[in-house]
Structures are given as C-alpha cells and as structure tokens.
C-alpha cells in the first residue's frame, strides 16, 4: 500500500477477494482496513471468497458501500460505476455462492444487458471504459472449476459495444490476455499479499495510466512486484498497450 500511495493514483480498482470465507467479521475487518488506507476514489468488486456465505449479505454490502458504488435497489443487477475525469471504471459482479471445491463465477444475462447499455452510454460521454470483473474473461487462464461460466456472453457484449480495457483478479498471476475477436486486453495482477518466494506469484499491483490523445487512448500498464528484500520494483510483466480508438459521440 505504501508503494501504491507513492504513485499518487487518481483512482483505485480492487478486483475482489478481500475476505477468505465471506464472514461478517471479515467484512467488518476489511472495512476498517479500507478506511485506514485513505484511498482516492476506489471501485471494489466482490470476489468468489466474498460471496461464499450468503447470510447477512445486505449488511455486508452496506459495510463496503463506499467502495462498491452499488447497484440501486430498483436495478439490483446493474453494473457499478465510478467516473473520474476521463475514466469510467465499470464493475461487474461475477461472485456467486458455489458448492465446496468450486470457485466459478457468473455475470448473468440481466447484468450483461445492463452492461451493454452502460458501455454505450459511457462511450457517448467520451469516457475511457475500464471494465472490472473478478473472474478471468477468457478460458484457459484458470481451471474450469474456477472459471467464468458465461465468458462467451461477456465477450459477446465486449465485441458488440467495445471497451478500452478489462481488469480481472482471481488468477493470482500478472497476465495480459487479448479478448478473442477484439483488440481489448484483459489484465490481471498477482495477489496483494503473496510472499516473494515465487516470482511469478509474488505480491504486486498494476499502475495503469490513461492519456487522452485527440483520437486515441494511450494506456500504459506497469506491474509492480514484491522483491525478496521487501521492496517493490517494476517487473518483467511491463507491457504497453496499443492505443485504443476513441469513438466520439457524433459517430454513434
Ligand atoms: Fe477469487
């Protein structure tokens, strides 16, 4: 967290699994931790661990309300949204209670319909659209029992409506994967807490910069990785995205 603060981010995106079992006490502890971080505007989406226990779900959601930027009562399936300057963070909830030994996720048809609408509206507003979901949006990144059941439907929405970037969690690895049939990249990070005994898994985060050019977004992704000496450094995962074409509202 010190390393993140050092970068003075304008926004923070948290891709889930702040708890182990989704216990009420864990949600309370996570709330205290989030408050202590004094984050800039942040969007948090739940992970599968946060959804393992259904009890007290409304209470637990209320504890994280400042960061979930949630869905309204009237539209419980609506994606969450956080806008700052020229960037829109759009959150999809794929966390569903699962049977033991499963960790799969699902966006659901109702949420995907609303996602398509939100992607259209935020594009018309001239925003850089960054979509967050916990589960990897393509097969082969995690095993099937941990995967997103309706990844095809999610990809269909992206193919139809576009997005500038996708961020996911769950895999505990820093990867950059193209979404099939699009020029959209899906980006993940290692966990925030893994000790540095395995370089490919050691704790890290992604510093992502978005610059608005006359007709493109220039997006740079820098993975920061925990070293055995306890410092964080730029890792070999550094990649620079191709610029994404910006579609002004007049072309819709
Ligand atoms: Fe997860």
From TrEMBL:
SUPFAM superfamilies associated with the record: Metallo-dependent phosphatases
GO terms of molecular function: hydrolase activity; metal ion binding
InterPro entries: Calcineurin-like_PHP (IPR004843), CNP_phosphodiesterase-III (IPR050884), Metallo-depent_PP-like (IPR029052)
Keyword set, alphabetical order: Hydrolase, Iron, Metal-binding
Domain Calcineurin-like phosphoesterase span(s) in chain numbering: 5-173
Top-level taxonomic group: Bacteria
Pfam families, sorted: Metallophos
Transmembrane intervals: none
Recorded family membership: Belongs to the cyclic nucleotide phosphodiesterase class-III family.
PANTHER family in the cross-refs: CYCLIC NUCLEOTIDE PHOSPHODIESTERASE CBUA0032-RELATED, PHOSPHOHYDROLASE
Name of the protein in its database record: Calcineurin-like phosphoesterase domain-containing protein
Species the sequence originates in: Acetobacter pasteurianus (Acetobacter turbidans)
